[in-house]
Amino acid sequence: MAKELGEEITKKPLIIAMKGHPGTGKSTLAHALASALKFPLVDKDDIRDSTFPLHQQPQGSDTLLNHLSYEAIWRVASTQLHLGISVIIDSPLSHRTHLDRLISLAASAGARLLIVECRPSDEAKWRERLEGRERVGTSQTLGRSFRS
């Protein structure tokens, strides 16, 4: 079975796209999958974090930075897919426009698309986890040991 799965994975590129709210385990699962499958991981948080100096700009720049982060994800993923390399994309994938862009990307690269939606099994613990993140602060961008 594992051999068959490995052969299927190598036939044409695969996009594994994580979907879900913050704190639901997307990043943990994405990192585990990337490590096990040896696929590059394109993490929206990594791209967004690289724009941190720009966050001090006037109000309204958050929307622009979010848009630019997604644009960077699509371009990096597109390059990998057109090279025949499968990718894992870690992002909330919370807007229909992002899903549509992902579907278009898969079609243009001749790639298969698998969307993995992460949901909290215990909503109270999930809310607690998010509140804990807010207390620690969202500006911890480098060296985070855990994030979703």
Q: What does this molecule look like?
A:
It comes from Gossypium hirsutum (Upland cotton). It holds the Pfam family AAA_33. This is ATP-binding protein. Helix content is 53%, strand content 13%. The protein has 148 residues and is an alpha/beta fold. The protein has a single domain (10-136), classed as Rossmann fold, CATH 3.40.50.300. The two termini are 30 Å apart.
Measured distance between first and last alpha carbons = 30 Å
Number of helices: 6
Just give the CATH class.
Alpha Beta
What are the secondary-structure elements, in order, as H or E?
A: HEHEHHEHEH
Counting helices, strands and paired strands, the structural category is alpha/beta
Strand content: 5-15%
Total number of strands:
4
Q: Determine the CATH topology.
A: Rossmann fold
Domain unit count: 1
Overall 3D shape: globular
Mean pLDDT: 84
Provide the CATH superfamily: P-loop containing nucleotide triphosphate hydrolases
Helix content: 40-55%
The CATH architecture assignment turns out to be 3-Layer(aba) Sandwich
Structure in a nutshell:
With 148 residues, the chain is α/β, with parallel strands linked by helices. The protein is 53% helix and 13% strand.
Give descriptors for this structure.
148 residues, Rossmann fold, four-stranded parallel sheet, 6 helices, 13% strand, disordered C terminus, P-loop_NTPase, ATP-binding protein
